[in-house]
Amino acid sequence: MIEPAKSKQHELHMLNRKQLNLTGVHNVESFDSEEFLLHTELGHLTIKGQNLHIKNLSLEEGLLSIEGMVHSLIYLDPGSHGKNKGMLGKLFK
After folding, report:
1. With a threshold of 0.85, does the pTM exceed it?
2. Residue 91: its H or E element
């Protein structure tokens, strides 16, 4: 029996810019206290802020919880390489 194709689902819930819960997360590409780069169902997502840290992570279920002060959420265009731009790419934004 053929299973029906799953539709892509990605949810993001933020509370007071201090708690962020996401679904549809495939991978955490990189992270530090000021920036997270995630691969989600709908593409790459960059989260910027201060004192960011992982509260809960389950890649099997596609769940991620982050705490800290969130300043921005940016979805990167398909085909862009996020942090792989290199030093010159960062200088000439």
Report:
1. no
2. helix 86-91
